[in-house]
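Chapter summary example.
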Amino acid sequence: MRVAIVTDSTADISAQEAEKLDITVVPLQVMFGERTFHDGIDIKASEFYPMMAAHSDLPTTSQPSAGTFVEIFERLLGEYDEVIGLFISSELSGTVRSAETARDLVGGAVTVVDSGLVAYALGIVVLEAAALAAEGATAADILARVAFVQERTHAYFVVDSLDHLRRGGRLGSASAIIGAMLQIKPVLMIRDKTIAIYEKVRTQRRALETIADRFVADVQGKNRIVAGVIHSAVQGQAEGFKERLQVLAPQAEWRVIELDPVVGVHVGPRVLSLIYFAE
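The structure predicted for these 279 residues follows.
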């Protein structure tokens, strides 16, 4: 049994990991006016954030078309027995709907999973699935593992401003206005497939302490921890946060990742996030 794993570019999986584990990564798109870039292909995170800072208008994003997925699914079904697609939360993007349309058109052994997650939270699930696929696991076993990891993957983050989330329609305008008036630094989380406020605090320092406290509570007594500090254009702060967290959980598999451009459009620069899975 050969199972192909497909995901989208918001998963923050490196090109090296995708190649090693035979993961097909489908890019979303970022548009600056009439210029269109394919996430992770002709625009990288290191290029995107300076470009966004230089433009007064917020760039827009778009999911892959159903036709793009049809081509990918048909090609993979010619090489593999089954295809499993793991994608960004359907509450944050239309990617799942495009993939489902393509699945119905292709009519082969294709399973589309709405991860309910985004960024490296999705990446953790995809990497776990791909590792099993590389070992020759069945689609049923892979999907069971996916469900297990989804339930135990957490994403907390603090943004520099709520304005990007408000303008992009990912957070209610009332929450954004309240945040601006009170000058709060809310700790945000992924819950029920969308972005929600976990706790409201006054400073970034307290926000990061809140995230660290939640992390310690969740990973206590766990045998395996996979964790990433995700950031948008604040590499130094991310490295410092990771070093603080490593003291709390030195046994974890740690990494620092710059957030992909598509998600960066909606959360803005100077984001710090902790994403982790523990079992």
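To summarize the output: The CA atoms of residues 74 and 107 lie 9 Å apart.
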